[in-house]
Structure formats: structure tokens, C-alpha cells
Amino acid sequence: MALLEVQHVTKQFGGLSANRDISFTVNKGELVGLIGPNGSGKTTLFNCISGLHPVSTGRILLDGEDITSLKAHDVARLGLARTFQVYVAAGDLTVIENVMVGCFMRTRSRVRARARAGEILAELNLQEVVESLVSELPVAAQKRVTMATALGSDPKLLLLDEVAAGLNPSEIEDIMKNIRHIHNDLGITVMLIEHVMELVMKVSNRVMVLDYGRKIADGDPESIARDRNVIKAYLGERFVREHEEALV
Amino acid sequence: METLRNALDFSDFPRLDLLIAGLVAVFLLVFPLFPHSAFAMATMIQFLMFSLYGMGWNTIGGYGGQVDLGKAQYVGIGAYTTAVLLIRWDIPFWFSMPLGMCFAIIWSFIIGYPLFRLKGHYFAIATIATSLVLMDLFEVWDFVGAARGLEISPIKYHPPDWWRLIFKEDVYYYYVILAFFLLGIFYVNWFRKSRLGYQLRSIKDNEDVAGSLGINVHWAKIKTYAIATAFVSMVGSFHACYIKNIEPEDTMSLDISILIALMAMLGGAGSLWGPILGAAVLIPLKSYLKEWLGATAGLAGIDLILYAIIIMAISAIEPRGIWGIVEKIRRRKKR
Amino acid sequence: MDILASSLVAGLLIGMILALVALGLTIIFGVMNIVNFAHGEFLMIGMYTGLLTAQATGIDPLLTLPVAAVVGFLLGIICYYGFIKFLMRGPMVAQLLGTFGLMLFLRNMALLIFGSEDRAIHTGVLVGKSFDMGMGVIIPATKLAAAGRSVAAFIGIWLLMNRTKIGKALTATALNAQGARYMGIPTERMNALAWGIGGASVTIAGALLVNFWSVNPFVGLLFTMIAFAIVALGGFGSIPGAFFAGLVVGMITEIPGIWDFFSYTFNSDWMLDFPMTSFKYTGVYLAYFIIVVLRPRGLFGWKH
What we know:
A: Rossmann fold, 2 domains, six-stranded mixed beta sheet, four-stranded antiparallel beta sheet, B: ABC transporter involved in vitamin B12 uptake, BtuC
């Protein structure tokens, strides 16, 4: 069942086309990875979907509802949550206060927000640092806090933007566990932008590839890894020609 | 009820703070019982009034991070509503004050909607512009006495008049404003723990992220602004009954707007105690400077020069205000 | 009909001078992104400078401009190195309140030194003379000369900003401070220079203004607000924008005259009774509000 439908979305900034005619569907329960070289338009696509930017042309449907022209906060209320690439959580709030902001979308009561926030933080193994200031935590923990905050609103669809950026291998392991837990046990549909290939390939059911604003591939991780166009996008035309035989 | 509990629960403050706050509260309660000059009493009343103005400003300016330099127009709305209603139709304070707050809220929604599309400097200057426009309007509007202003003559009434808030001795006014002051503190305590309070902190931190968490940023700012204006209008109504003589230049000038913002900034915008600290420092300072220096002929304006230097010093050296310094020291001690 | 014509002409003339007043503000904002509340106070100082120089030396008031320029330049640089520099480290609230403190400081220093009475210039070659432009429009010669010199000063500063090496360095810093720094342009000095030039242009305007507008320590605020409105309309950072916006705002201040014209034409009582003169500057504030909400970039602005 389609949870997210993106239909022929184009996003232009003045003369620059950041997203060109992108169409795809994400079904309920999937974990979709979104990869592509730098500047291929991945974050822009997220921004269009989450309502931060208006699209130039195209339609976006969430659970059957047209969210194309909705503002970010309305999209969020319909069940879409996201994290941001550059942003880390509010520095001078405590961890639980951060997550409470997310929970307040669903309740007016501070008591209930706090309780729910506590539950979510436990799900992500952050119960130890609940009262710490976010600014005092290491980067990996801060990223997990942003994930927890996004989960505060009990979303149907979670968009993660490069949560593994800058983490060392053991931290990547931890966050992979968190993502698997969110997807498998909490039953949330996930779409994630990543540059850390081992993470994407290991957790995703399906991977989409963008290059220069266009979708150039969409399939399971193994076939994507061998896809000619994908390799060309990352390693260049010449590499592909020189290694013609190795690629099927 | 959870709301009540939120308002009365101060347990997330360090014990030392609560102890000091308690002592100050006791002091404020018993102050009039000790021998004091009329000047000191007047200063204390001013202190309480400006603490409240500052607390109101703080909701949108401190927690919300939007620098509003046009609060004086709401002082005017409150003051004039009460004065006009009393003089023309003998309507007592306890009816005119809420009515004034309603007018303030209505006006704040009207200008708030376009105002909050602006950010930063543009926003600040626009708030000044609206306040000046309103002041100019009051200067020529005969219904409110134009530039001459309005005067409430106590002889017409029989003080102590609790309905109309007309008293002969300042002591009565003191306890009334003290009651408002304590209510104000409970209200702000509730506010910072409320959903809107949390939303504001998120907005102040990063508006895009706030939006992605389902917060309607524009609307949250407008709501908070309305709250702030209601606060200010409430005290403005009190001002009319206390000072009994109001004119646009005194009640609605830019100087008043800046003074209100200054209270909160000097004390520490974004904290509960900040505006109170700011008022505690600035109001006595301003009053006593004026008494000692301002009256001296040939030295006109020197009190304001010192006052200006203090503003400049704080802005340049410790923009987070007194409370910012306190928090810095505390953080260092923790390590 | 003459009311209309003379209002429009008066509006244009005052507009040219107001444009010069706003010029300093837009340069400082363009380079440093700080809004200077004390801007009107600089103007006030320029006015006193012009007045006193003329009175002390007996030379024609309109020739006091170089003195005013030097005073303004030094004032700007001293303010920058002595105060503004430190203000920039803090949040915007602190900056706004800081420049407001500066405004109070300068205003009350002037009060202390000069006293609160109005002062005006009564001597000079052109006082009392006027030009008759036909259609019943009579312009005092002082105003005309002041407006003319304003335009000249404006063009001079525009040339400075666009044709000289230093001006270009300043513009570069305005557009992209970090980039300019990588090219070897010292940001600190550019900031100070912006304040110097900004200060000089507004004190020159003051020295011109005092020829037909009396000065007292309190004139500053009104002109600060007018300057803000002009800069917002023209676009923060745009010099030609400041000029055209200045003319427009100048005409807005002449609305009472235009209003009178229409009230006579329509022979309408309520229009005649309406105290439009009291709202002379209210129109400016309203204009600011409307512009900034509807078109934040202003007419020509590139900076947001």
C-alpha cells in the first residue's frame, strides 16, 4: 500500500534545476535508501516532500492525501517527520525537553508529553542521558536525539537526512541498530539519505539513486551496486568504460 | 488540574534561587510596614510595575526571541481604556482593565499578522513604527484628550475606592500591584512549561526544525505576542489609576518601549527572574539618579547620560544580562 | 493648483536632503548589517556643527560642509572602534539596545552642552532670497541651494563607492565579508570606514539641513525613523535606491499640502477639518510598515 507517492516533481531555484521529473512510490513498511553524489538533489527532495520548499511542478501524496502545497507544519501533522542534515538539537534544552517538543504535536499536556518522550528515549537507548543538556553530548548521541525528537509525533513516515555523517564505525553500528529497531519493531516506514554506503546497503529493502537531479536507478541494494549508471555517476564515464567486462 | 500544578511548581529551580526568591517575597510583603519615604514607596511601585512590563515583554522577546520595541502602545491602550471609561461613564477598574486587555489583544492580532512575517531588524523597526503611529493618533484624537491627555481627579470619588482603584495613600496601590506581580510570576511559570512555551523555545532555536515538528511558527508568535500585550495593557490600566494623569507623550513614547525591553535584556531575556532583576537594578537607578542629579540646574540630562552609559556597557560586555552572568558563574563552578 | 505644485516641489527638495541622510544608514547597514539607532543623533551633531562653525567663523553656512564632513567622519570612526566593534559580538537584541544607548548618550550630551532651546541660522548670503518658479511656486533660496548640494554630495559619495579602489573594497565587504577577507581586504578597517563615510554623509546633510530647520538636542529620533523608512523603501544596501526612496518619502511628508489641495478642490469640509499636518510623519511610519511587509527587498535592495 502506497504511503508516499511522488509524481513528476521538479524543483527549480532560479536557473538551477535541483530536482528533475522525479517519480517514485514508497510503500508502507519499506525502508528506502536514497543515495547519489553530492549535489544530486537528495536533501532538496526531502525539503519538497516535507513542505519546507514549494515544488515547481508535480504532486506529492501522503497516505492518499495531496500534500503538495501544504506548509511544513501541516505536513508534519499528517504523519511525516524528518531530521535535518546540518542541524543538531537545541543546545540549551535538555534531551528530554527536546523530544517533548516533538511530542507536543500530539498532546497539550506536559505530563503526557514528558512520559511519551521518556518512552521514545528508552527505545533508542538514551535513557541514561535524559536530563543532560544536548550540547554536552557527543555528536553520535546528539544525532540520535534528533531522531527521537522526530519520533515524538508518532509519524507514519520518517525521513532521515544523513544521520550517520561523521560517525565512527562503532557509532554507525549503534545507529544502524536504532534504525532497524524503528523500522522493524516500531513499524515506521523509513526513507533515509546516506553517504555511508555500508549503512544504506545493509538496512534498506530498496535503494534509489539520484544524479544531477534525476532519478537514475531504483531497486534492491545488490542490483544497484552493480548498476552501470550508478557507477558512472559516482566514478565517472571513463571508469565504466575501462572496467566494462567486470560489470554485467 | 495540571495547569495549576504547572503554575505553582517551581521545583526545577535550584534551591538557592528559591530561597532567595522566598526572602525577597517576604521583604516585598512587609516593606510598607517599616518606615519608608514616599519616594521609596513610589520607587517600589514603579519597580513592581516595570517588572510586570518586563515579564510581558519577555514572553515574546526573551522566550520568543523577537525583539519588540513597540510595547508602549499597549500601555496606552490599557491606560486610556481605563481612564476614558472611568471619566466618561464611571466604569470601575475591574471592568475596564479586562476590557483594555481585550482591545490590546485585538489590536495585537491585527498588526501581529503582518508584523510576524518580518524578522530581525525589520521586525524591530516595524514595531517602533506601529507604536509611533498609534501615539500620533492619540495626540490628535479629542475623544481621549489629544495632547493634553486625561486626568482623573480623586476628589470626585471617595477614596479608598476599591472598585475604581482610587486611593489616597500609596500603600493601597502597592499591595494591589504586588498581587498582580505575584500572579504574573505564577503565570510566567506556567507559560514556560506550557506547550506554547516549548514551541517558542524550538522556534527560537531554529524555525525550520520547529515547522517540521508540527509547529505553526507564524501563529505561535502571534499568540505569544497577544499574551505579552495583554500583560502590558493590564499594568497600563493600573498606571492610569495610580498616576491619574496620562498623556500620549508620557505613556506611549519610544522611551517607554525601550525601557521595557531594557528591563528584560539587562536582567536576562529568556529567564523567569531576568526582568525582575533588570527592574530591580534599573528602576531605583533611574529614580535616584534623577533625584540627585537631574534636578541640578545646568546638569540637565546627566542622569540620562549615566543611564545611557550603563546600557551601552551591558550591551557590549554582557549581552545576556545579569542572569547570563549568574549562569556563567554557575556553569564554571560545576566543573 | 499652486498648493499642489509647491507641495510637490517642496517634497522633492526636502527629499533630496533626506536621501543624503539615509545614505549613511544604508552604507553602514550594507557593510555591517547593523541598524544604527543613533543615526539621527549624528545628523543632530552635524546640524550643530554647521550652525556653530557658521556663527564662529562668520562664513556662509553653506560652506561649512567640509568641517561637518570631518566631524562626521571622525565621529563614525570613534564610535566604531570605541563601541560598535564590541557590540557586534552579541545578539541582535544587544546591538539594537546598544545603539539605542548611544543615541541617548549623544542626545543628552548635546542637551548638557547646548541646552534645549531651538537654534537656527539667520545669517548667510542666501537668507531671505527666494526663487519664483511660476505657477505660484516660491522656493527659498537656502532650500534650493541645500538640495542642490545634497545631490552633489550624494553623487560624490556614489562615485567614491563605485569608482575608487577603496569604495570597491567597501562594496566587496558589503556583499561578502569573508570572501573579501580572503582577497586581502581588512574587514575591521572596512567596517570603520563604513562608519566614517556613513557618519560624514549624514553630518553633511545636517549642516545643510540646519539652514532652514532649527536644531535642538531632540530632533534626532524623527530623522532616524525617516531614514529607516527611506532605506527600507529603497532597499537596504542600495545607494540609488536611497536616492529615489528619499524623494518619495520627501513627498510623503508633504502630504498635508497635497491633502489641502484636494480638500479645496472637492470643497469637502471633513477633509479640511482633518488635522493632516499632525500626521505629516505618521505617513512615513505607515509607509515603512506597508513596504516592509509587502516588499521586503524594497525597490532596489539586494540584501535581505
